[in-house]
Write a structure and sequence with these properties.
Elements: E1 5-8, E2 11-14, E3 19-25, H1 40-53, E4 57-61, H2 74-81, H3 84-91, E5 96-100, H4 104-113, E6 117-120, H5 130-137, E7 141-144, H6 162-179, E8 185-188, H7 197-205, E9 218-219, H8 225-228, H9 239-251, E10 256-259, H10 262-274
Parallel strand pairs: 3-4, 3-10, 4-5, 5-6, 6-7, 7-8, 9-10
Antiparallel strand pairs: 1-2
Helix pairs in contact: 1-3, 2-4, 4-5, 9-10
Length: 275
């Protein structure tokens, strides 16, 4: 593999060992922790906890992507985020902040506030100016696989082999991103977005066949319904099952795990590294 580091605005992430991205939802309606961290004070406390437990990156999102969520525009996202990014940067100057948005205007705002990565669930499809904006910032870009629109993102639209479909999608998007001069690209298969339970599990089993080892891959399965619904459990009651799947993906080459439960995932990563 030719990738080993990501340049996050001058701070380098060494990907020779897996890293954790802790989730900070500043939304009132996220499916598992909505409303818990949407003030500056509660956000700071939660981030301090996640950093202490081993998170390298904090992923801030102001837009819920659960099924039937209300679509916000970029102005509402920016209002929700407020001073949280700049406050985190002031309080924890070495923490890497990823901004979870599909709006270029929100990226511009986040860049001024100090973000280090852009995490775009839409692969640039929901805002025509996204790639150009990311190129301007020079930040690493998380390219996720998703269906064509915000309102269809959870519909099951993939009939072909899921690995072939994703690799075709990634190769097309990477070519576009390269054309804009975007160098650091992280791939995200988009677990739970427009995929059946069987397809999500196929992605885990064949995780090492994504991107042919050319790009780092982020795995975001934390509290996803394809894990808890078949078991008849709630999103908060599948930690053991989630960590088994995390370990499987680490063994197959996952470089970044995007998680709610940082402490439990740290144990999984430590176990993986020690073996």
């Amino acid at each position: 593999m030719h990738f080993s580091t990501l340049n996050c605005r001058g701070q380098l992430i060494d990907l020779s060992q897996p890293k954790m991205m802790g989730i900070l939802n500043v939304t009132p309606d996220s499916f598992s922790d909505g409303g818990s961290f949407n003030t500056e004070k509660t956000a700071l406390v939660q981030v301090e906890k996640m950093i202490g437990e081993g998170a390298t990156i904090i992923d801030i999102g102001a837009q819920s992507t659960r099924p039937n969520a209300q679509l916000l525009d970029s102005k509402d996202e920016i209002l929700r985020i407020g001073k949280i990014i700049s406050s985190l940067k002031k309080e924890f100057p070495h923490v890497l902040i990823s901004l979870d948005t599909f709006f270029s205007e929100t990226v511009q705002f986040g860049f001024k506030e100090g973000i280090n990565l852009v995490n775009d669930i839409s692969g640039g499809m929901y805002d025509d100016e996204m790639y150009e904006t990311v190129a301007y910032t020079g930040l690493p870009y998380v390219l996720m696989h998703v269906n064509g629109s915000y309102h269809s993102m959870h519909e099951k639209l993939i009939d072909d082999d899921i690995i072939l479909k994703l690799n075709h999608y990634f190769s097309e998007k990477i070519q576009l991103l390269r054309g804009f001069g975007i160098k650091d690209i992280i791939l995200d298969p988009g677990f739970g977005f427009g995929k059946t339970v069987a397809q999500n599990h196929q992605l885990i089993q064949e995780f090492n066949q994504l991107s042919f080892g050319q790009f780092p891959i982020l795995a975001g399965i934390s509290r996803k319904s394809f894990i808890y619904k078949p078991l008849g459990k709630s999103p908060l009651d599948v930690e053991e099952e989630t960590q088994k799947l995390h370990l499987k993906m680490l063994e197959k080459g996952a470089k970044i795990l995007r998680v709610h439960d940082v402490a439990a995932t740290k144990k999984t990563i430590d176990h993986f590294i020690s073996n």
